[in-house]
Write a structure and sequence with these properties.
Length: 369
Amino acid sequence: MAADPQEVMRNLERLGVRISEPKSPRFSGSDQLRLLQEIEVACADGSPAEFDRSLHESGWETLRPAKLDVFQINVGRLCNMGCKHCHVGAGPDRVDQVMSKATIDAALAALDKTEAGTVDITGGAPELNPHFEYLIERSRARGKHVIFRCNFTCLVLPAFAELPGFLAENRVEVVGSLPHYRKRNTDTVRGEGVFEKSVDAMRLLNEVGYGTGDPQRVLTLMSNPAGAFLAASQPALEREWKASLEKSEGVTFDRLIVLNNMPIGRFLKWLERSGNGNTYLAKLTGAFNPATIAGLMCRNTVSVDYAGRVYDCDFNQMLELPALYEDGTEITVENLDLERFTKRRIQTALHCFGCTAGQGSSCGGALAE
Ligand code: SF4
Ligand code: SF4
């Protein structure tokens, strides 16, 4: 169940977050899948690319889950920004797609049925959910490691002045997305002034002990390429980013994760509009790396949406491809049965090549050297 949009709006008013952006067109999961299928892409032997065939040829009969480690909760698609490459299709107008407290409680009850050690809170901008701190406190009370994925820019708003201290006190790992360590590149992707706000937020986090090597206060940066190309080598980029941000801005962080752009959401729209669809998918399929399969995020993660529906991963959530029990029943936080869940077959499609290309890609970064 989604939160009452009026409650969400009142909370935004309290936080001083203005909802002034124009509505962005919604792109349904079925439309995304249709568009993906229309992009003709062939394997090296000339046959049409099919993810399941590539799996079989790599010795995997089908994709099945391993042990569940990460319980990822997307608390809503509401975001203070509306980036043109957003795979979530998040934006300031998504007030009707925010998780209610009742659904958070149902998700926590489902979490209790599992052995997942990590609660990964994502969005949109999760801190705009009226029950964000409640979710962190209830997860920490269960002894879980908590990850908070943010875009940094809310952290500099006066209403969030206490948030860095709250996160530090609760030993929450902060994963902040930043397109680039150069101002020009970041502002081109996210808008004028975003780089400065992001660096200011990093500074606030550094002040409470984040990004200084303390394992209880981990600050991770996350970046995707700005166009239709694959992510570069993660270790090399991490060295470059660390040196540059410390030297030019005086801020530090602990690790960098780089992700391939998934051909879904607004990025898929952009691929279509710019005529880059075939080229990009050919790049992904051409770089298929069987060494990434064992570590695919869908094998150890579950993804829950704002309404309590369960997916194999965040990307399948955006494509509205629900996780299914073997009898075809859609899985929700209310009907989660771990034994049946573990036996399910993971839903795959062409977008999965985004996770297996090159060094691989997941919410935790690269999957192979
Ligand atoms: S990419 Fe991140 S910051 Fe940008 S709209 Fe999407 S969720 Fe918000
Ligand atoms: S998109 Fe990636 S994580 Fe999701 S099901 Fe496909 S391979 Fe797994």
